[in-house]
Amino acid sequence: MKIGIDIDGVIRNWAGKLSEIYFRENPVHKQIRNDTYDVGCWFPIGKEIYKFGFEVHAEEIYTEAQVYPEAKEFLKKLHKDDELVFVTHQPNKNLEYLTIKWINKNELPHDCILFTKDKSKFKGDYLLDDYTKNLQRISMVRNSIPICFNQPWNQDWNGQRVNSYDKFLEIINK
Questions:
Q1: What is d(CA 14, CA 12) in angstroms, rounded to the nearest whole number?
Q2: Residue 60 has what pLDDT?
Q3: What is the pLDDT of residues 37-68, one digit of tens each?
Q4: What range does the domain containing 60 cover?
Q5: 125 three-state secondary structure
Q6: Which of 4, 44, 69, 74 could connect to 87 by a Cys-Cys bridge, CB 3.0–4.6 Å?
Q7: Can you give the pLDDT at residue 78?
Q8: Which is nearest to 65 in space by CA: 16, 117, 32?
Q9: Are residues 42 and 113 in the same domain?
Q10: Are residues 25 and 98 in the same domain?
Q11: 33: nearest Cα among 50, 48, 24, 46
């Protein structure tokens, strides 16, 4: 099978690293929320968080973010029997470069990386993603079967959802 895996929110804890660095730099601020994909709503600085994360602290966030627990083992299991494609959208070329650097640093198994804003262009069997709009578009285009990786910000997704990597493996191995 050909399996697509999103990176941020599925394999890399980008939001966790963004929050860690933001509160290190702004210790008196409090997080407002974390239940929306728009991180501009999470922090008191609003949309300025994008400049903070994508420019000012990009290298540290993108290369030092943690791999979610059990993600590397999950990728190894997938890569053993299936073609594994990272399908990710990064806002600019520098963030694509930093993402490749992070993948290599963490020695994450994969066959290739597809950088695209429109993840419905991925043609494969399954695509695991955390962003509702991607999942909706994928389900409409039908180039792959969308599976939602459960996160606080995607509770509006009504399709198939998994809370663990093992559950995803169960679904694709049926």
A1: 6
A2: 98
A3: 889 889 999 999 999 999 999 999 999 999 99
A4: 14-64
A5: coil
A6: 4
A7: 94
A8: 16
A9: no
A10: no
A11: 46
Q: Indicate if 111 and 163 belong to the same structural domain.
A: yes
- Total domains in the fold of the chain: 2
14: Cβ contacts below 8 Å, ≥ 6 apart: 7, 8, 61, 62, 65
Residue type, 46: G
Task: Specify whether 164 is located in the same domain as 111.
Answer: yes
Tens of pLDDT, residues 116-139: 999 999 999 999 999 999 999 999
For the chain, the average pLDDT equals: 95
Tell me the per-residue pLDDT of 144-160, one tens digit each, with 9 for 90 and over: 999 999 999 999 999 99
Together in a domain, 22 and 55: yes
User: What is the mean predicted confidence (pLDDT) over 103-112?
Assistant: 98
Q: Give the E-state strand segments of the chain in sequence order.
A: 2-5, 83-88, 112-115, 126-129, 145-149, 161-162
Q: Examine the domain organization and report whether 9 and 21 are in the same domain.
A: no
How long is the chain?
Answer: 174
